[in-house]
Amino acid sequence: MPSLAALTILVPDYDEAIAWFRDALGLSLAQDRPMGPDKRWIVMRGAGGASIVVAKASNAAQRARIGDPTGGRVAYFLHTDDFARDHRAMLAHGVRFLEPPRVEDYGTVAVFADPWGGKWDLLEPNPPMGAEFRP
Known about the structure:
Radius of gyration: 15 Å
Shape: globular
Low-confidence stretches: none
Strand content: 35-45%
CATH topology of the largest domain: 2,3-Dihydroxybiphenyl 1,2-Dioxygenase, domain 1
Structural class: alpha+beta
Oligomer: single chain
CATH superfamily of the largest domain: 2,3-Dihydroxybiphenyl 1,2-Dioxygenase, domain 1
């Protein structure tokens, strides 16, 4: 069966996005290759799961979708094995949480926003959900 390898996030600037994903979320820069004038192939990775392809919006239609790919819903889910540790670290790096942490049947979660307005869940799933998590 196929597995999800990557997803794309539109941003206004490559270097700003690389710094935010690296410093605020703790992801690593896996690839940064030039692809022609003003275009790069940027891939960010965490400890597991899908990678993020960072794409600089190149036209008005793409720029209009920066920060709101789902019409206001949470678009991305960042799993952690230690919610308190990662929540503290993200706050220290200026991540803007849109709500206080809460405990749900499926785990501990809080919604945060990336610098462009995209909504994310920071989630420590309860066992045995793990990779089978479905909110």
